[in-house]
């Protein structure tokens, strides 16, 4: 057992893992079953909502798919009227993927599906505990980014508007070498 002082770090890690998986399962179930999307498709719509005009390859990188798998996913999203491929600028050889109006609307619903169970879980904590937790999560996210990079992948299902509402994004700060 690993202790830091009198604290059992492995137990805390296990609690964090169980909490993370339970909450992830809950919001992904809503996004996938209720909205008819795969996990990757939900992440792709949210990613394109925040950053439209990515190439298929870059979109795949951000959601963790190979280029062929990303192309198949974009084909399926396009067939459902959720995204469209457009020609880029004269200097861009690749076509760019943009969400349609329907794709933007579905991305909003996916973000709400993600946010609702998280807000519900936090609502059981006192406001001061929520603030402490926010600070701890910011530290953890900066450390995760320092170890693995890939900020766009870390934040593939983030609601950037909600994230940036009251403070800077800790992952964005870590990518720029800012923050504590």
Automatic annotation (TrEMBL):
Q: Which UniProt keywords apply?
A: DNA-binding, Transcription, Transcription regulation
User: Which SMART domains does this UniProt record tie to the protein?
Assistant: HTH_MARR
Zinc as a keyword? no
Q: Which InterPro entries match?
A: ArsR-like_HTH, HTH_MarR-typ, WH-like_DNA-bd_sf, WH_DNA-bd_sf
What is the scientific name of the source organism?
Answer: Brachybacterium sacelli
List, alphabetically, the CDD domains matched.
HTH_ARSR
Q: Which Pfam families match?
A: MarR
Q: Where is the HTH marR-type domain?
A: 9-142
According to the lineage, what is the superkingdom?
Bacteria
Please identify the protein, giving its name as recorded.
DNA-binding MarR family transcriptional regulator
> What stretch or stretches form a coiled coil here?
none
**Keyword flag Transcription regulation:** yes
MF terms (GO), sorted A to Z: DNA binding
Task: Please name the Gene3D superfamilies in this protein's record.
Answer: Winged helix-like DNA-binding domain superfamily/Winged helix DNA-binding domain
């Amino acid at each position: 057992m690993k202790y830091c002082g009198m604290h059992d770090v492995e137990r805390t890690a296990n609690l964090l893992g169980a909490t993370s998986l339970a909450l992830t399962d809950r919001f992904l179930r809503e996004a996938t079953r209720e909205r008819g999307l795969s996990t990757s498709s939900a992440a792709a719509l949210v990613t394109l909502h925040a950053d439209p005009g990515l190439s298929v390859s870059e979109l795949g990188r951000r959601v963790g798919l190979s280029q062929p798998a990303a192309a198949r996913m974009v084909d399926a999203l396009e067939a459902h009227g959720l995204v469209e491929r457009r020609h880029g600028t004269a200097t861009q050889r690749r076509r760019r993927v943009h969400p349609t109006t329907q794709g933007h609307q579905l991305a909003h619903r996916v973000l709400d599906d993600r946010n609702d169970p998280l807000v519900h879980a936090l609502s059981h904590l006192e406001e001061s505990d929520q603030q402490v937790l926010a600070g701890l999560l910011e530290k953890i996210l900066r450390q995760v980014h320092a170890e693995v990079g890939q900020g766009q992948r870390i934040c593939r299902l983030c609601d950037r508007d909600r994230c940036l509402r009251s403070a800077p994004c800790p992952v964005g700060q870590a990518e720029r070498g800012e923050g504590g």
